[in-house]
Amino acid sequence: MAMEAYTSKYPDKIHTDLLSDARQTCYKARDAFYACLEKESHIKANEIAAVGLLYPVQCKKTREFYEKVCRRTWVTHFERKYCTKKRALQTLLDDNESKKAAGVYV
């Protein structure tokens, strides 16, 4: 209630402290979700996220909290970034394996 009175009194003021707190909360939720993904990576993923990211049911609660505290566009952005990094790492690992199989050592 006090915040509504303050924001209605100063409608053009950007509340950077509130934005910063929300951003930090989002980052913590994101980190918790991706930590769960890494921890449970040995389990078959059966839940699907926005950009096709699959995750195990054990991470569902952290995923729901992540979606609750972060903007949808941020969630999509972070997922795309995560998937890109995972694909790049897998490509690098696959290239190294194929070179080893061919007898080429880097």
Automatic annotation (TrEMBL):
* Keyword Thylakoid among UniProt keywords: no
Cellular component GO terms held in the UniProt record: mitochondrion
Any coiled-coil regions, as ranges: none
Give one Pfam family, short name only.
Answer: COX6B
Localization, per the record, is: Mitochondrion
Q: Which UniProt keywords apply?
A: Disulfide bond, Mitochondrion
Principal localization reads mitochondrion
Which InterPro entries does the entry link to? COA6_pln, COX6B-like, CX6/COA6-like_sf
Top-rank taxon, per record: Eukaryota
**PANTHER family recorded:** OS08G0441400 PROTEIN
Q: What is this protein called?
A: Cytochrome c oxidase, subunit VIb
Organism expressing this protein natively: Helianthus annuus (Common sunflower)
